[in-house]
Amino acid sequence: KGIFNTWDECKKQVIGFKDAKYKKFETLQGAKNFISEVEDLEIDIKPKDLEKLDNLPKDLMISYVDGSYNIKTKEYGCGVVIFTNEGKKTLSKKGTNEEYSKSRNVAGEILGAVESMELALEMGKKTLKIYYDYRGIEEWALGNWKTNNILTKNYKIKYDNIKKSLKVIFNKVEAHTGDKYNEEADILAKKSVGIE
């Protein structure tokens, strides 16, 4: 893949390759946007059974996140199911910020998203696909919802800093509809706060 200045340069790269995608652009930015869209399509991996997938791109991490809240203990936590080219990992973590706990399970949802982003950066990934069941994960990050408390404001700031180094693609899944990895993240989130 690449940007070429002449048709001769381009055809050396595309002729003879099945399903090659190429296009002429008036501006360099238009060409860059096209490549970005094609890259998004390339990583449109169907999450049906990721454990059987052994060829994830090296720069990609996929995570399923969920949050939970224990009313008795007033604790929030997250569950995360992670897939990379190195295989599957899981994370179950309790949050410790008392102010955040006022937002109950939403604090756990956000904790899961942030943990995923930070782990992707630590692992040197370039792209993270986050599957979530609570819409705020995407809406606050992208600025579509107003950040009206310390939790959501800090999440937006964190995302804005992370997106400079990591492309985050958000994917909504329906809660409790049998999505294998979303259900697993839900169990891990409950476990983090002592709910069996």
CATH top level label of the largest domain: Alpha Beta
The amount of beta strand, in percent, is: 15-25%
* CATH homologous superfamily grouping of the largest domain: Ribonuclease H-like superfamily/Ribonuclease H
Number of strands: 5
- Which consecutive residue ranges, at least 5 long each, have pLDDT under 50? none
Overall description:
It is built from seven helices and five strands, in the order H-H-E-E-E-H-H-E-H-H-E-H. The model has no long low-confidence stretch (mean pLDDT 87). It has two domains: 7-42, no CATH class; 48-192, Ribonuclease H-like superfamily/Ribonuclease H (Nucleotidyltransferase, domain 5, 2-Layer Sandwich), CATH 3.30.420. It has a five-stranded mixed β-sheet with strand order 3-2-1-4-5. Strand 2 and strand 3 form a beta hairpin. With 196 residues, the protein is of the alpha/beta class.
List keywords for this structure.
alpha/beta, 2 domains, 7 helices, 5 strands, 196 residues, Nucleotidyltransferase, domain 5
